[in-house]
Amino acid sequence: MSTTTQYGGMRDLDQSYKDTTQVIHSKGLEYSNDQLWYLLGVYSDEVPMRVELTDDQALVFFEWLSRLEESDAAPCEHEAERQVLWALHGQLEKALTEPFRPDYRSLVEKARSRISGGADS
């Protein structure tokens, strides 16, 4: 079962979790997080995880993943690793606006510089 198919994305899933938690607590019931996710139809191996990146980190990571995809040279030992990388790439592609800007290359270089403290590699 895909959580994005069932709920339309992380925001809908978060709201469903909050709503379910409020109902359960209003009735004086106690459930673990795993039990709550199960009630929502999301099983323990499917519970979404949040990863936080700064804007600069997200842009640099997106650029790196884009280069890997273009060269088809992702350093993966298993097909599942490749699928995870492309899923992350797709999520970043949806979230970022910079790749569509005419000064994209410059934005990437500036982000790299800020992250590395000005050191070139």
Written description of the protein model:
The chain has 121 residues and is mainly alpha-helical. It contains 6 helices and no strands. It folds into 2 domains: 3-46, no CATH class; 55-116, no CATH class. It has helices spanning 3-7, 10-26, 33-39, 55-71, 79-95, 104-116. Helix 4 crosses helix 5 and helix 4 (55-71) crosses helix 6. The chain is elongated and about 55 Å long. Mean pLDDT is 79; it is low at 1-8.
- Supply the number of helical segments: 6
Share of helical residues: 55-70%
**What's the end-to-end separation, in Å?**
42 Å
Rounded to the nearest angstrom, the radius of gyration is 19 Å
Q: So what's the overall shape?
A: elongated
Instruction: Give the SSE order as H and E letters.
Output: HHHHHH
Number of domains: 2
In brief, what are we looking at here?
This protein has 121 residues and is mainly alpha-helical. It has helices spanning 3-7, 10-26, 33-39, 55-71, 79-95, 104-116. The chain has six helices and no strands.
Write the layout of secondary structure elements.
Layout (H helix, E strand, L loop, with lengths): L2 H5 L2 H17 L6 H7 L15 H17 L7 H17 L8 H13 L5
Helix pairs in contact: 4-5, 4-6
